[in-house]
Structure formats: C-alpha cells, structure tokens
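pasting for the record
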Amino acid sequence: MAVRFLLDGEVIELADVDPTATVLDHLRYKLRRTGTKEGCAEGDCGACTVLVGELTDEVSGGGRVQWRAVNACILFLPMLDGKALMTVESLEPKNNEAPGELNPLQACMTANGSSQCGFCTPGFVMALHGRAIGASGCDLPVADVIAGNLCRCTGYGPILEAGEAVTSLPQDDTALIPALQDIAPQDTASGEHLGRKWFAPREPAMLAWLLAEHPDARIVAGATDVGLWVTKGLRKLDKLVFIGDIPELRAIDETLDGLDLGAAVTYARAHEALARLHPDLDELTRRFAGLQVRNAATIGGNIANGSPIGDGPPALIALGATLTLRDVEGRRTMPLEDYFLDYGKQDRGPGEFVESVYVPRPGPDTVIHIAKLSRRFDSDISAVCGAFALDIRGSLIAEARVAFGGMAATPRRATACEAALSGKPFTAETIEVAALALRQDFTPLTDVRGSAAYRLKAAANLLRRLRAREQGQAISVLELQADG
C-alpha cells in the first residue's frame, strides 16, 4: 500500500516505503528540498522544522486544517499518510511574477538581521510561520514557540523581534480540505519494505488484533523516542504499528470530576486541559521539551516507555491517575504507579497497549506543587521532577501523595515521606521530618544530569518550597519579579 500526502497541494504517492525512513531524508535526498536542515537528528535543535496539516473533526458540515510544527528528522514517512506537508520552500507567495520573493515573515527577518550563518533560519521561519497562521501552540509567547529551535550564533534578539512583528499571516486551506478528504485512509494502512512491515490502524479493535497477531511489533505514537533509536542508535525495526491516527486514542474528555486522555493525545493538545487541573501542570507542560516535540509526543507514549525521567508520570501519579490497558481480551485499569515495575520493565503483557489515562480533578483542599529541575531551563530532560499533593483539613495533612522522577529506576511514590506527612500538622517541623524520610525512599544514581547528593538535596528542597509557597513566599525568579 502506498503512502500518500500533499505537498503544496500536489499528491505525493510513495510505494515500497521503508517504515523508518525519515521525512527529513526524503525531503533532502528525494525531493531536493534542501531548505529543511539536519542539525542534530534527534529532535532537539529545530533546524528541520516543517508543518504538518490534517483535517480536524468536521464542524458545520465542513472542517478545517490544523497545522502543527514538528521535527522532520524523527518523523517517519508512514506517519505522513493522509496529511499535508509544508516546508520552507512552500512559503514563496503563489501566483507572483518574481520567483524567490519572500513572504512577510521572511522579509522581516531579513530586514532586521535575524539570520547570521543562516543554517538554523529555515527552522525558525517555519516555527514562527506556524504561529502566524494559527498552528498548534500559536497562543504561546514567541519565546516559547521557538524554545525548540537553537541558534548557535546566539541571534535570538532579532528573531524574537520578527516573531513579535509578524503575528498573523493569511492561510487559505479551502482547496486543501477536499484534497485531504480524497487521500484520507478509510481503513488500516500497511506496507512492507525488504521484509520490514508497518501498519497504521484507524480504530482500537484493529490495533488490538494487530498486536495479538504481531506481539513483537513496536508501537509508535509520536516517534520522539523511537526516532532516536533509528537516527542515533541505528537500530533496524522490523515491525511497527503507528497509532497516531486512531480517533478514540486522540480523545480528550474533560468533566467536573477529572480528565480522561487518550494515549495518542499529544502534550500540545493536552496542555490547556492539564492547565485547568492545576497551574503547575501548565508550567510543567510548557517546559516539556520544545513545541515541535510537544506537537508529536503523546501522553501514552511518555508513560508506556517507562523512562525514569519522563516529565509526565510523577505529576500524574501524585494526582492519583489511573491507567487503562487494552488487548483483544478486554481492558484492565490500575493505579499509574503500579505500571512501573523496574527499569525498562512495565506491567504490560504481549499484545497490550496503553489506551488512556484518567486524572481526577484535585479537590479545593488539596495543596499541589509540581516542579521540574533540569540543567537547561528549556527543552531539556529532568534531573529531578517532584510532585506533591497534600489534602489539608484544618491545620492537619489528612493525606499525602508524593512522587518523583529521576530519583529511582522508575517514576515512584515516596512512601516514607508520605507517612511522615500524613496525619501531621502542616508545619515547618513536619516538612523537615518528611524531607529526611526521602533518604529512606530513594538511593539515586549519579549521572551526567546530577549527583546522588544533589538529587537528594534538591528533592528535599522541593518539599520545602511547597510549604514556602503556601506561606506566600516567592519561590521562583518570575514570582520575585512579580513581587517587585
């Protein structure tokens, strides 16, 4: 079966597709669209930023195209099936008599010296163009939109100015909507290349059946992790199942009681709903990699791979999240913390997949603090991620849930710390006893992100910050600035 996508309105049809061939390589080496650059080949620098468009759910009998900026270096070609693609070459104004003319954003960047060596410039242009046309994440400040783009010449000032100057550009997708409808896959897509197979089901029952038939297949949602296995680890993956186009797995159900997130919901799409649960989730999600990664990385993928330093699980565990797994036999639900068994080992059997995660809405008496510490503020992996949810009744802590990432082989609750808090007065003395109890819960490793001593001290300080904030003290540079 061929992979079909739209590039500047033209249908590109590819047969015999390597399941792990990247969009970046196809653009540069097959289509000769060399404006898209390879900088890091791991989704970190943004030089390869492109825009991918897909139809949203139909409304008023029509529908619209939702664009999102993503990293082409870790986007596999089958993931483009049924979608539209925009590269920096696509921005040339249509129907003009002067080929090579710049669009307003490019012209502004040229005029104000936003480009120095120029290597990173196309990636910045695409990220900012996405913001200007209302792509996913467009409601963020310019600095947040380009946090996933690196300029090694340190020319950020003029780039930020250009982004602030050109905040809106027209995007007419009228002709694109029927074209996307024409190439939209109606059933499971699949392909084979030199004995290596890929599948892209469109509904959960087919996904369950495929995984039962191929229990050795690798599930791929956003490829923000698996992509590196290919580009950096040079691994050959023989079977892949792409789950990003299953509507049920992309569903967000928000109620007064809580938030139900399908496994294939991206962090960019979940951002607003998570922020409504608590402001700390807003900040945590904002710092979850760069926008390009958030536009691809999924809630389920961040959980399913079981990384001890994944940003999402500690916060979700502290909030009492439950996880639903599914296979051909049915579903089972468990507390999220029970899913993580050991490093690289999760409670997921052959043929099972993460279907959804449910996060209960915190009560009015719950005091929450969630904080991520990393060596680089933007677009970096956690050294320590701490999450605290204390149910305060009067002056007592009725119940405590404390979870950390980066402190053990898995994201894990701090049970000794919780015991030291529960049933105790919410005082500085209680906090100090609980901080000491963290040494019973964790024996962290020393690695490039931090020493064991640093991690233990940082974890204790995050607990102290919780009470300091509840006492009205400023605990961050931004809060200090706000206090004047």
